[in-house]
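Handoff note, outgoing to incoming analyst
You'll be picking up this chain. Sequence as last confirmed:
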Amino acid sequence: MTPYNRRVDVIGPGLGALCALASGMTWAVINLMVRTLTPPFNSVSINALRTTVAGGLLVAWVFATGGAGRLASVSAGDFFLLALSIVLASSLGDTVFFESTPRIGLAPALTISMTYPLMATIFATVALGEPLTIRMFAGSVLTLGGLAMIVTARGGATHGGPGWWLGFACAVLASLAWALSAILLKAPLREMDAITAQALRMPIAGLLLFATPWARGAFGAAFRSGRSVHWRVAVLCLLTVFSATLFTAGLKYAGVAMGTVLSSTAPMWAVPLGYVGLGERLPALALVGLVVTVIGIVVLQL
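Most recent structure output, in case you need it:
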């Protein structure tokens, strides 16, 4: 094959970083939309609904674009890693995170769980051989520190209450589970594109969520709702498709370290979105955190 007809992958680390940033932005919009849908849904049922529908859309897209062979050619080892990564991220990580929030407060739980990109960076350096440079470390600390300032400014905390240490341990466990999930996802991404990977992962996540008692009746509640709810659910499912695919593309092309840090920027995007969409006031600490986060992103891209 000559250099002129060789297939060229046009997505490099720069575009991969943009994908990770975009996934953080879409995740912020998803969180705002979920707030408008609870009620009539609880958090588990709306999560099961959006994940299952998004997974179905991704599978349909893969088949419509002639990708059935890609799905069939996935090895048993890669499928196992994809399944294990979604079990760690959704079944374990999300569950223990939700358990931590009433015990220590939402803001502390979010702040603790934001250590997952640092854990993922360490794991990626040790297990995958990804380089850890001073620039990468400084940019990650600045970005995550700014995000912690935003979260702290926007939420309250519960100190010394019953089960505080259990809540703290749950938040740390959630961070660890998400970090391990990102590492497990990286290996299959060497052999497949982001859309194929999520077309395999997301239906598994949806089935796991619907296996819980809290997700029962989600589709019935959706059908019984009015047209306004139908449109919001439809937009939410489409955003989930984009968010999941962009996150996976960020990991694949930008690497685990940069991908996990930049995809964690949802609190940064939530500041302007909350102000414009919900009229939320912006505390001074949140604005300072926004500036620090942007500086960290710039350092990562130098």
